[in-house]
Amino acid sequence: MTDSLLCYYLPMSTTIAEHSLPEQATPERPAPERKEPTYVFTEKQVAEKSEIARRFLETRARLNANVEKANNFLVKRFYNLDHNAYLEGTLPAKTKELMGLVASACLRCDDCIVYHAIHAYRLGVTRAEQEESLNVALVIGGSIVIPHLRRAYELLEELYG
């Protein structure tokens, strides 16, 4: 993380010198290897299988094109951080996508739920694994999650049939 980006996240009264940056990898504690996950399905295959997924992927691509035109440094940094968080690492990408699914359901973000359900499917996560993850979200988030759970199950029905 650069000093300028770190300043963005620190309280106004805090200086960089008051915070230590994360430790560097050492021989005793090597940095985990991060790599792109291996997908079982392409986005095109998912779009052919599910109308919900097709509409979502097309809309997301169109809207992202507008964001990219803005050429915003902070948005690019955040997108990069998001991408890197879901790479294979100490935790498998499948686990991270299911964590994203749970958090998205608890936060009641339908776009995020669809995104993580699609990526989990592409990585080979089973329907039972997605449903169990949604059970965790329901317990954590409570009954307010139910409308989002219904829409998630509709997508899972199209994907897994």
TrEMBL record:
<feature type="domain" description="Carboxymuconolactone decarboxylase-like">
    <location>
        <begin position="76"/>
        <end position="152"/>
    </location>
</feature>
<dbReference type="Pfam" id="PF02627">
    <property type="entry name" value="CMD"/>
</dbReference>
<dbReference type="GO" id="GO:0051920">
    <property type="term" value="F:peroxiredoxin activity"/>
</dbReference>
<protein>
    <submittedName>
        <fullName>Alkylhydroperoxidase AhpD</fullName>
    </submittedName>
</protein>
<dbReference type="InterPro" id="IPR029032">
    <property type="entry name" value="AhpD-like"/>
</dbReference>
<dbReference type="InterPro" id="IPR004675">
    <property type="entry name" value="AhpD_core"/>
</dbReference>
<keyword id="KW-0575">Peroxidase</keyword>
<dbReference type="InterPro" id="IPR003779">
    <property type="entry name" value="CMD-like"/>
</dbReference>
<keyword id="KW-0560">Oxidoreductase</keyword>
